[in-house]
Design brief:
The structure holds two protein chains of two kinds.
Chain A: E1 3-7, E2 10-13, H1 18-44, H2 48-52, H3 54-65, H4 77-105, H5 116-129, H6 132-143, H7 147-171, H8 175-183, H9 188-221, H10 230-239, H11 243-271
Antiparallel strand pairs in A: 1-2
Chain B: H1 2-10, H2 24-44, H3 49-65, H4 75-106, H5 114-129, H6 132-143, H7 147-171, H8 175-183, H9 188-222, H10 231-239, H11 243-271
Helix pairs in contact in B: 4-7, 4-9, 5-7, 6-7, 7-9, 8-9, 9-11, 10-11
The chains are: A mainly alpha, B mainly alpha.
Chain lengths: 272, 272
């Protein structure tokens, strides 16, 4: 915080020294240059005629999409049920797989910090960095399209997310409880069951519900690549330009997302 | 005498773990409900086990392809797709963060007047309820194919995510500091700059880095619906069963996400 003389015995104050200001200025310059370069690349491959035409197209689509075709709802109940199943079963499978991975990845429970922990961390980062749609694409190429591919895609994508949050919770446990259980002469399994599990159970339940909520969102679009659920209907309606059906499906998806978020917030509120 | 009754009940019996849910009625109802749902869900999934069995070979082939990654034969597509993904990520993160700061300020109940608060919260709710892929589909329909649609999608998604968390952070700031700045006779802008901003900057930087990470991961799938980025190349590679190329792309994505995570760790450690 530099102070400098202003003349006639007064002192001025600035937040940063001149050197700090220079560094910041250069940083901003580089940042702005990178952004402008990126923007130029985007705008270089954009057909600007379409962009100027966009308001008209948007109005056109809106006019075609309203009113939603409510009678199409009869075809949507089964896809909604499928979507719910993809999210729920996917989350359950993911949790079963994430628990061992989390125990292997946590510093205080891993059997080997040199060999096992890096492998577990690699599993976490690789399943987490790849979007469930890409997992679905891959699984459709391998096991064929359908709800099953969607469930497995959601499950794989969720392993990393759940395991990461869970292993952080395991690393934060109170070690004195574990020591107390060990002092009673308990074996490793009993120590885990009575010393560690009760401490991470609230976190675990929170993670499960939180991920379920995200999975409902993600499973609504899995159908776009053929992995079952309401996205299939969305994709076929889009392909046939049936905009009234599209708007109805979007309303249903929006409702599903809002309801699942509300349910998950309620459950998490009850747990904590 | 009741006390000793309870005591004699427990004597000579091993300790049993108390049940998680106290009311036995609720416990049984939940167990029956969950079992019924799972049975119905699993029963309603049609799995073509023959197809899955046939696919196992292809799955093994995919896993083996990680041992012989093929960056060469589609090097041009991979390079241009990756560059487009990165360009979209950078541009969308900059614009999204720039827009979400005023909206975040407006959505903080301790700063904004009620009408502005409601408008900003409305924007956040809309942005959070619509998922990236669906927004991308609509924007591609309106603006045409290309990275502009992806850029707009990611910017829009960034606003919902960042403004909400920023607003929550602003709502929990220390009042004493802002009052001290106000007591010096500061104008509104000065009050924000010196009273509020220093308190939220560390969190904002951390969240911004996290959002860049998410934007990159999302940009990898936007190509599936024609909104630019590496997704289109990846989709083609899966469709043509070119698992070597697909695996190479996935490895690049995982590598960049890991690098971003490492970088954000460094930045956050410096800022805090």
């Amino acid at each position: 915080m530099p102070v400098f003389p202003l003349g006639n015995d007064r002192l001025g104050w600035t937040r940063r020294t001149p050197a700090e200001r220079l560094v910041r200025w250069v940083g901003w310059l580089i940042g702005v240059a990178v952004f402008v370069w990126c923007w130029n690349r985007i705008s270089g491959v954009t057909t600007w005629f379409f962009v100027w035409d966009a308001p008209r197209i948007a109005q056109d689509i809106l006019a075609r999409a309203t009113p939603p075709r409510w009678s199409y709802m009869d075809h949507l109940w089964v896809p909604i049920w499928d979507t719910l199943n993809i999210a729920t079963l996917g989350t359950l499978i993911a949790l079963c797989l994430a628990v061992p991975v989390a125990f292997l990845a946590a510093r205080n429970t891993t059997p080997s910090r040199v060999f096992v922990r890096p492998v577990a961390l690699l599993v976490i980062v690789s399943t987490r960095s790849i979007n469930s749609l890409i997992w679905a694409l891959l699984l459709i190429a391998i096991i064929g399209p359908g709800v099953f591919a969607g469930i497995i895609a959601i499950a794989i994508r969720s392993i990393g997310f759940c395991a990461k949050l869970l292993y952080e919770a395991i690393e934060e446990i109170d070690q004195s409880q574990v020591e107390a259980i060990t002092a009673t002469g308990a074996g490793p399994l009993q120590v885990t069951t009575y010393g560690i599990v009760p401490q991470i159970l609230p976190a675990f339940a929170g993670i499960a519900v939180f991920r379920w909520d995200i999975n409902i969102r993600e499973s609504t679009v899995l159908g776009l690549v053929g992995a079952g659920g309401i996205g299939l209907q969305l994709s076929s309606s889009l392909n046939t330009l049936a905009w009234p059906q599209v708007s109805l499906i979007l309303i249903v998806i929006l409702l599903a997302v809002v309801i699942s978020e509300w349910v998950s917030a309620k459950i998490r509120g009850a747990i904590v | 005498m009741r006390k000793s009754d309870a005591l004699s009940d427990r004597l000579d019996r091993p300790w049993r773990k108390p049940p998680l849910i106290k009311s036995p009625w609720l416990r049984r109802a939940l167990a029956i409900g969950v079992t019924a749902y799972l049975a119905a869900a699993i029963f309603s999934i049609e799995v073509n086990w023959l197809r899955v069995y046939e696919g196992l070979d292809r799955g093994a082939e995919f896993i083996m392809s990680f041992a012989r990654l093929d960056f060469i034969s589609r090097a041009g597509d991979i390079w241009s797709g990756m560059l487009e993904s990165i360009v979209m990520t950078v541009a969308a993160s900059v614009v999204g963060i720039a827009i979400s700061i005023p909206i975040g300020l407006g959505a903080a109940s301790n700063i904004a007047p009620l009408p502005i608060y409601l408008i900003c919260r409305g924007v956040i709710a809309v942005s959070r309820a619509l998922q990236e892929i669906i927004v991308a589909i609509l924007l591609v329909a309106i603006f045409g194919f290309g990275p502009l649609a992806g850029f707009l999608t990611l910017s829009f998604a960034t606003i919902g995510f960042l403004s909400k968390l920023l607003a929550e952070n602003i709502e929990s700031i220390d009042k004493a500091q802002t009052e001290a700045i106000r007591a010096t006779g500061s104008k509104w802008m000065q009050w924000i700059n010196y009273g509020v901003q220093p308190q939220v900057i560390p969190r904002l930087v951390g969240l911004g880095m996290y959002r860049i990470d998410i934007n990159f991961r999302e940009s990898a799938v936007l190509g599936l619906v024609g909104a630019g980025g590496i997704g289109a190349t990846l989709n083609t590679a899966f469709d043509r069963y070119e698992f070597d190329t697909a695996a190479a792309i996935l490895v690049v994505i995982i590598g960049i996400v890991m690098a971003l995570e490492y970088l954000s760790g460094l930045v956050r450690a410096r800022v805090q």
